[in-house]
Amino acid sequence: MVRGPRRHRRRAQALPYGAALSAGGAVMLLCQETARSRTFQILALPHQGPQASRAPPAGHHRGPLNEDPALATPAAAPRGASVIVGLGAVQAAVALARGRRSDRRSTARRAGLLSNIKDFLKKNLNTSEYDKSGPETQADGMKIRVSSNMSIGQPFCGEYQEQPLKCHGRSVFMKLGLPANSQAVYLLFNSANQWAFTPHGDGRPDGWAFVADEAENPTEISGAFSVWDGATWVEDATIRLRDPSIRAEPANQVDNQPSGLKEAEALAEAQSKAAAAAAAAPVVSKKSETGLPEEVQPLSMFHWRSHWAASQRCRIDWPEPPAGLDTKPLQVHPGVRRGVLPNGMRYVVLRNAMPPKRFEAHIELHVGSIDEEPNEQGIAHMMEHVCFLGSRKRERTIGTGARSNALTDFQHTIYHIHAPCQLEDGRNMYYPCLEALQEIAFAPEMLNHRIEKERKAVLAEMQQVNDMEYRIETWTLSGLHETNKLGSQFPIGKEEQIKAWQQQDLRHFHDKWYYPGNATLYIVGDLDETDMIKGIEKVFASTPAKHKPSKDSAIMEPVWGEASADARSLFRRKIARPRPDQLHNFSLPMIGTNDEFTDAASFDPKNGGQPWHGPLRIFRNELLEGLQLNFYSKNPVRPLRTYEDIRHLIGVRILVGVLQFRIVSRYSSNHAPVQIDHSDSFREGCAVTSVTVNADPRDWRNALACVVQEIRAICDYGITESEMKRYMEAMLKDVQKGVQENDTVPSEDHLNFVMTSDVFDHVVMHPEQSYEAFKEVAPTVTMEQIHATAKWMLGFMGYYGLAAAPPPTAIVVCTPTQVYEEHSGQWTPFNITEQEIVELMTTVPDKSRAEAMNQVDVPESLLAGEKLDKLLGPGPVAAAAAWRASSRQVDEATGIVQLMLPNGARVNYACTSNESQGTMRMLVPGGRSADEPGQMGSSMVGIRTISESGAVSNYSREQIELFAVSNLMSVHLDLNTEFSYIDASFTNTSSGFAHVLELLHLLFQEPRWEVPAFVRAQQAYKAQAYAVQKSLEQSTLDRLMRMMYSDLRIGEARVEDLNKLTLAQVRKAVSSQLRPQDLEINIVADFEGKGQTKMAAVEGALSTGKHRHEEDEIQEAEEVELPAAAKERRLLELDEALWKYLGSIPASEVPQGNYDRPPQINRGDELSPEDRQRTAHLEDSDERAVANIGGGAPNRWGKGDVYHSEVMGTKNFSWDYPDSSMKDHPLYPSMCLLAMREVINTRLFSTVRDSLGLSYDCSFELSMLDRLEAGWYTMTVSAHPSRIMEAVEAAKGVLQGVKRRPISELELSTARRTLLRRHETDLQSNEYWISLLTHLQFNNPKDISCVRDIDTMLKALTWRDLQNAYQTLLTDPEQLFVSVCTAGPGSSFISGGAAPAAVSTSTQKQLVEVD
């Protein structure tokens, strides 16, 4: 698969940020977990809806290249810091989260962006004769040398190489010898008929210097260049452009211009005096009489006025760091071992026992799409497919419990295997897996039939990934990386080239890039480090070296690090083969080095032209629903190597957290659609500051003005002492979490973190080392430092339009072409222009210091003593003890504790030391199934209304938000088809648990029902309904559900139903569900305090945990066993807190709703074929297609609806038929269905994708309802529109073929192994434990045995059990429902019914426009 950065999903907010109340289905403040830390992040997510039938996001499916798809389900999500800086450490944004927390964790989605985007941009941007995107050198092109005798001309001096492109009929030249990844400098002829020095190679009329001369060749220029000095245009007549072979003649100094800073200072002083003498005359120089700052005196500064004198407001005064921090190196992780084989292959190993007895191995080839030649676009991705599936040794790992996959992005191709160290029969798996990776990378079979098969797969993938989110990312990258290939040469490649490559083309590319000297092997797992290294040497040392460099290169060195010749490669590993530089258009007022400051300027000074501030591009598409404004600033990466680097990082994280809260507090809603981030991008090779504003197109001005004003205020005044204290304390808790959770972080997360850290030469640290560094550095962070950091990081937006401000790297706006006006019921045109955006940003009024520094009073506790005492009544201690003695039940086998609170609420909790954060889920029956006729959508709008308010009792939303930040907790409200629920996270301390219980108490007792919050909730779901109509995937699935069910509770809410709702109706709907007596409360946390005890031990000495234990050391010995008395005391405090805060909530007097109304699937045999299959088309610029196939199925306990039961009766079906020894176990139907699902998914993959090449991705899912006696299954396939029906028939054939070709014992064995391994890994996750506890005390068949006997159940299954379970699916032709939708040119339509069109059509032929 290909992967390009999904910027808004990937970027993790840099500071823990709590949200007290948030709701599903929109912008949610959630717990974002990555390998560096668990942080809170605002996510702009599409509403996932309550229906269990919704297919999971594409990024959460198994990898499409996995030959063992049943084993490819993502591993347990990461928990806590991996190996560097537990404070969140490295800014490298690593999308490491996997799988089940789809709405909580960012995942790296496959990418491979729009294949023809470069041609598209070329056509629409009018970049004349612009035939190449990257600054590649033309070996036979001419060179010129630039010289100047004036300081303002010095940055342009040097040699320039002619490039293989033309601009307005003349050659383009690029400056040579710039530092790696620095600002590009071009000399070209622009659209204003001027020769210019500029950072952009596309001919726009901007830059730092220009001359109006139409010479054909730069050496023929006769005029003098005008240079922008930050205040005015200054003529430098000494700039000369010559052939390097011609000796330069000394240039005469221009008498009336300053030749250096001292002369410039004197000149400015004289100008000031002259201006004072003539009162009416304006002051030309803005320089103060104090003279230039001392620190700039020795610098040869360019645009010094712009940097210093022109605007003191923008000036960055970095305070002096504490002595010694900038020279004190960070400690290196003691468990990470590195080496280099004689053939040049580097390796990194780390011992980690989570999951136990398994390991993770990744081999990274340092080659990606930006290394491809113009006629090779997409070949790196194609090579990944062919190599991965061209390994017979990898095929032998199938069925062993191993899972494998591969990915390609801009600069990396990675192949990885996750496998057990040994099989059940004792066979070693480490060597076979290494041999498989060796064959994949260095000796793959490139058979013609495999190449053809993978060609089809790649073309199918190209169609699948090109959704709207994908295209937005493509447009964003094209603006952000206009000076290099990252903005135009995407991993997916070009269709016409992919179709043309032959075997010899692939072999040539493989020989060029696939060799040991261009590879790094990473291994992390439950193996001894010495054994790991021996295996690496045995398997890989014999691989021949190729493209050997000189003996001075790192390829021959036995070490890897600062002593190595290729250490500090801030982009990619240096190799013997020339690799093209990828210059970045950094948002810095400088060219090349830190002592030469510049500001790009426009070329119309006579008409008041102002400095240029970054490209602003507007992309328009009819299928977009909301407006998105993206502001980007690129900077060089700052490697984390010293304590001063950590100090800087702390400042960045505090700044982002404070700013994020300030902006959220400006919104009426708790769901402020604004994301702010600063992080390193290992795929892009730079640091990126991003500000993303999502807005209703009709209200974009207010949304953007709010953000600009808050950013400017924090740049002007910094932050307050209370903000500093609050966020520093939150960061300390975050660092402590990293230490506590280190032993439970999966090997995959450790490995990915080390890999991405290495890209930027960050020091990889153990979390305990990070904690010690943080404690030492934190007291040295000052308010002045934060203020300077704000100007440095956010000045590009806060000071937009000022000459001294660094320009944004890119501003990218994605906008719809029309909006729906409810009052008229019509779609009306919508337009936004560059002029409107620039005008707004430069005219937003400033905030005063008093306004900016105004603080919200943060409560220390939400429940006052007298108020709570009144609820508890007299004698609370004795009452609590009596209640506990009579109510508490403990299952010794699982450790699960069950309670019944005085108000009737039921509690299940388990103690684990998996995570430093506790997890809670409170749920009640109801959900969307509780909606009454005529009030469809009332439950979800009501839940969202509470969240939109964000306030409880007499506390404001801002107070609740800061209370959550201070206590590192979050509360999230949502619902599905069957239940409404509240998810909460909290710190594992008695006060942390008490604080979240206080908030939950008030949420039930005193929620705030506000009309504005209701209106916002209603509008949010109406916007979601419109968005579904414009989404190919969501609209197709919604039509399937509407065909299968006439019940409006299934499927997306309709706008006409939402418009009928009132605040009273939604309040009644929610109040009838959120009744304390109906609650089931499930909690998982380290209530026994093992993590806290470990934290206390860290204060004394460094312990590397499970990473360095000896072979004969018993792992359990590392567990810290508390004294029995202390353990009992903690559990007593837990029970008393539950009784005190939740048990004291009075039972509700609101009648319970009628929830026992399961939806009934439509009887397919009574419908016409046209009513069982619907086809639709969406008008779009690109062709895609997707199909959903569905039918009836039982719920988790084996029971279906009335029609399903009738069909089962005609089949004489019985769960007792196989006569299994486990048939009477309540979990039996569920285990059979889950194993059957794995088998069907495996068959789908091997048939539809691998054998027939019809679909890049396909999946089979079951609804698995818990409460309602109903259910369904869905299959999803994607393909090219011309082959979508063929893919549908193939998928139906796989599903119905299970009847003709029964499930084999081998298929069962593979499925069983997959489920067992997944269960074993997931037991380390709090969220999985929550799912095990859920419904234990609900009115269904589930009991403690369903938690205790999972392993036993899976091992006892036979193929007959699965074959019998297959009969519960309604798969006959008249029982199948099919929804197919294509996208591409042509008017939108829907066939097979009277449903409204998915989108409004227009007469526009060009659906995508760009400004």
Summarize the structure.
With 1411 residues, the chain is of the alpha+beta class.
Q: What report would you give on this structure?
A:
Helix 5 (about 380-390) packs across helix 8, helix 34 packs across helix 35 and helix 34 (about 1230-1250) crosses helix 36 (about 1305-1320). About 35% of the residues lie in helices and about 15% in strands. Residues about 5-20, about 25-140, about 250-270, about 275-310, about 550-570, about 590-605, about 1100-1120 and about 1395-1410 have low confidence and may be disordered. The protein is globular and about 95 Å long.
* Average pLDDT score: 78
| Rg value | 32 Å
Shape descriptor reads globular
Spatial gap, N to C terminus: 32 Å
- Count the beta strands: 41
- Uncertain segments of ≥5 residues (pLDDT<50)? 4-21, 23-139, 248-268, 274-310, 551-571, 590-606, 1100-1121, 1393-1411
Biggest β-sheet strands, sense, barrel:
9 strands, antiparallel
β-sheet strand percentage: 15-25%
Task: For the largest sheet, list the strands in their spatial order.
Answer: 12-11-10-8-7-6-5-4-13
- Sheet/helix structural class: alpha+beta
The portion of residues assigned to helices is 25-40%
Supply the number of helical segments.
Answer: 40
